[in-house]
Amino acid sequence: MKKIILFASGSGSNAENIIRYFQEKKTAEVVAVFSNNPSAKVLEKASNLHVFTSVFTKEDLNSGEVLLKLNAFQPDLIVLAGFLWKFPDAIVAAYPTKIINIHPALLPKYGGKGMYGMNVHTAVLENKESHSGISIHYVNENYDEGGMIFQAEVEVANCQTPEEIAVKVQELEQIHFPLIIEKIMKQTL
């Protein structure tokens, strides 16, 4: 069976959704969740769904230790689902076109270092954007600059707070992210 490894830093809503999707569909398996945050809720969610978890430090990521762990799993796809650190060039080079990320905005707008979560939604609101959405893209050596795979948008003109925008964007994430992961795996493997 095709293997997926997830990287997440926070609550794990996308990770949990992806794990459940593939446990039901059985077209692939999430074999591990890696996190840089030892208190991230994603770790508990993954464990409750019987998925291996691994916590690592920035030193582990940059020294090659995380790459060794990845290689042991031989993943078919690495999915960044709310992972906030930049991926080292060595991992990107080892898994070209096999690492994808989801971003809570319509790239190229509101991308780059520091543009994640509420920071993105606040910027969208402050700039009075009428639409926002999600971007699923390949990961390269730069933040949010890898090749675009998929975008979906939602109207946010009536939203009064970043939290209202976040709810609409998260709905898109929950609907589309597992489907796009499955589609990518069918096309490339």
TrEMBL record:
Transmembrane segments: none annotated. Signal peptide: none annotated. The keyword Transferase applies. It holds the Pfam family Formyl_trans_N. Residues 2-179 form the Formyl transferase N-terminal domain. One of its GO terms (biological process) is 'de novo' IMP biosynthetic process. One of its GO terms (cellular component) is cytosol. Its EC number is 2.1.2.2. It catalyses: N(1)-(5-phospho-beta-D-ribosyl)glycinamide + (6R)-10-formyltetrahydrofolate = N(2)-formyl-N(1)-(5-phospho-beta-D-ribosyl)glycinamide + (6S)-5,6,7,8-tetrahydrofolate + H(+). Pathway: Purine metabolism; IMP biosynthesis via de novo pathway; N(2)-formyl-N(1)-(5-phospho-D-ribosyl)glycinamide from N(1)-(5-phospho-D-ribosyl)glycinamide (10-formyl THF route): step 1/1. Keywords: Purine biosynthesis, Transferase. CDD domains: FMT_core_GART. Gene3D superfamilies: Formyl transferase, N-terminal domain. The keyword Transferase applies. One of its GO terms (molecular function) is phosphoribosylglycinamide formyltransferase activity. Belongs to the GART family. This is phosphoribosylglycinamide formyltransferase 1. It comes from Flavobacterium macacae. The lineage of its organism: Bacteria, Pseudomonadati, Bacteroidota, Flavobacteriia, Flavobacteriales.
